[in-house]
Amino acid sequence: MNRFPGGAALSRAIWNVKSPKLEREVFGLRFTNPVGLAAGFDKNGELMGEMANLGFGFVEVGTVTPLPQPGNPKPRMFRLPEDGGLINRMGFNNLGVDVVAERLAAFRKTKAGQKELIIGGNIGKNKVTPNEEAVSDYIKCFDRLFDVVDYFVVNVSSPNTPGLRALQEKEPLMDLLNTLQKRNSKNGISRPILLKIAPDLTDEQLDDIIEIVQQTGIAGIIATNTTISRKGLASSDELKNETGGLSGVPLSKRSTEVISYLHRKSNGAFPIIGVGGIHSAEDAIEKLNAGAALVQLYTGFIYEGPALIGRINKRIISM
Prior knowledge:
This is Dihydroorotate dehydrogenase (quinone). The chain is of the alpha/beta class.
């Protein structure tokens, strides 16, 4: 619709909900509303204007890696309609940080790019990069995107890059985040750095995450990424046994539990972006009530369409 004359204005008129009640100030950034597009949908920074016109308050681009990579062989995404879920094993397919940075820079120069849309950069390592050298990949992405994004997300929780989740262990994660934080403050200008975590962490590991956030001084947490669990699925064995991360309705309860645990155990010491299984306005409210400052959509956006964004924002206004 945005590519036709007047299409962008029509999209905004149909989908966009505006109200001072929706505005949020989180980790030093002003969001026009608390509903964002999660990473993985716009991997290469191609749809930011369109997503803003549909009513998203922020868009997270990526996951972006230093070098282009094709991701895993197709088929690599599977719909589970009986469960309201998706299984994906995309594998960080993207055009590489140079292409994405150039696109974001060009978008920032447009009329749409100079408006209020907050853009996040979700960064990861290339598949061929060993974990011992992973920090250098994150630094490359961080440096290249620094001038064109508003916040960063360190993705060490995707189940689709071999060995990546090992970087969630305390020692390597502290090293990675401390390195990025030193890089972050060197020019007197800093960007909020968030950590995206898996829903499959134990309470002990979540306690470590709280300690890591406090010790490194990063801005907050995104809870959660996809799960490797298949518990309680109604879909066929053929579908549910596909390898990859599960998102959507089956993830909703666990992601909310993680949000609640982090918020409660940390005494609300840092902001949390809640994501995982938001298919209705009530799902979003549940995560906000659990302690999330903002929410993100992915699978729910695919199943429910853009009207879901407006329904959530209208529900928040009515509270």
